[in-house]
Amino acid sequence: MVERSAQAAFDAPPPDRELQRLEPLLGTWTTQGHTEDSVYGPGVPVTSTETFRWLDGGYFLVQEYETTFGEEPTQRGVVYWGYDAEAGRFRLFFFSNNGPFTEEGNRYEGKVADGRLTFVGPARYQYELDEEEKIKTNADGSISVAWWVRDQKGEWKPWMDNTFRKIGD
Questions:
Q1: Which residue of 36, 95, 138, 148 could cross-link 124, Cys pair, CB 3.0 to 4.6 Å?
Q2: Is 1 helix (H, G, I), strand (E, B) or coil?
Q3: In the CATH hierarchy, which top-level class contains the domain 24-166?
Q4: Residue-wise pLDDT tens digits, 68-126
């Protein structure tokens, strides 16, 4: 009897079904875009390569990225995407080479509403959802992401639109 209850403590529930919304992101993607003028300064070209994979067990999506804004040093980092069923929200934590972790600067929360998956943290970004309620893949296989940053008054302003194209399909 003791062995069974000890084993039960190690039995985890299956990954939350909400995580299936993220499946279209799996793989390696590249994008080229341009930011708008913002509190960060004049708009600059942006290039990024990002890889998404499931952490063993399927409870977290792991994103590794290399992003360059204009002439700035390339930002390299990792993002862990999970789903908090109790709160009904996605939770993201990211770590990068451009500064230490802070609660305000390295966390995003995401929720589904009006056919979109929107994440809010230091910036805001949004994916359209398809008819299966997963991140929408465009007809050409790309994925679009819209970004906003806060202005001096604290209001969200458009910052950039990215179109991610899969590498090595």
A1: 148
A2: coil
A3: mainly beta
A4: 999 999 999 999 999 999 999 999 999 999 999 999 999 999 999 999 999 999 999 99
